Amino acid sequence: MKYLNLNNGLKIPMVGLGIYQLNDEDVIIKAIDEVGYRLIDTARMYGNEKILGRAIKRCKTKREELFITTKVYTPDRGYERTKFAIEESLKNLGLDYIDLMLIHEPYREGKEMYKALEEALEKGKLKSIGISNYNKNQYLDLLEHCNVVPAVNQVEAHVFYTRQELQKVLEKYGTVMEAWSPLASGKNNIFNNEVLLEIGEKYNKSSAQIALKYLLSKNMVIIPKSENIERLKQNIDLFDFELTNEDIEKIKTLDRGISLFGWYD
Ligand SMILES: NC(=O)c1ccc[n+]([C@@H]2O[C@H](COP(=O)([O-])OP(=O)(O)OC[C@H]3O[C@@H](n4cnc5c(N)ncnc54)[C@H](OP(=O)(O)O)[C@@H]3O)[C@@H](O)[C@H]2O)c1
User: Fold this and answer.
1) How far apart are the C-alpha atoms of 178 and 14, rounded to whole Å?
2) Does 81 map to a domain?
3) Whose CA is nearest to atom 48 of ligand 1?
4) What is the extent of the structural domain holding 108?
5) pTM for the full model?
6) Strand 129-132 to 152-156 pairing
């Protein structure tokens, strides 16, 4: 596993497991103990924090080795509600600290919600804090009003929408870009994409692995979701080959610069 440095001195694994709609405790345990995932990405919205909490308790891997992310969302809008949400997430996950907590979307109350995260960071309940789905202007606006620069902005990013302009701005101020739906959630027939298949043949890798490796080559953290043991293995088996500049240029041609999920820049 490779790691990126966060702006608070902590390290984040570059590949994690996203568990939206993945509610099988045993699969999560296998992903951690047998496949080697360390970063697990959930959210209050996904309704599976308790499932993840049980998996963390039952797995053989030590808690300190894990990097657990969750997110506050719509019902938690506001300062007091976010404070409550942090306590709820800690309880659901059965943890005394969360590695990374994000504001799920740029809500109107985002700044006061972020203040609640900053206070929990100070108290050690959260180790790192950040945001999700913030575009460039929303990010720059938050920077003007916060005390702690977000460690992470988790946004839609995949070969069809690589968001290099946003990433440049994030990196300038010290925020790591984390890609959600790094396999485009299977959209645009990604797994049969000829460019990805052709490059994959050279390295004996699948189209999915090439798509994920491309994001790693851009210094993004990725959180692909899979419930299948073979695909879970594939999605983390990305460190024994390198894409050439020529491969990277070919993959770049797939970028359409438009969200596949209706988000806007
Ligand atoms: N912050 C946000 O607003 C936000 C929004 C969306 C998602 N997320 C996060 O991002 C995570 C991942 O996003 P996602 O679940 O939408 O999409 P994804 O990871 O891009 O794609 C998952 C889909 O691809 C399939 N798949 C996975 N690995 C594969 C492989 N190697 N070969 C072929 N098919 C493969 C999965 O099926 P199988 O399970 O059958 O393998 C599933 O249908 C979520 O779980 C969540 O944690 C965050």
Assistant:
1) 9
2) yes
3) 180
4) 3-187+220-227
5) 0.98
6) parallel
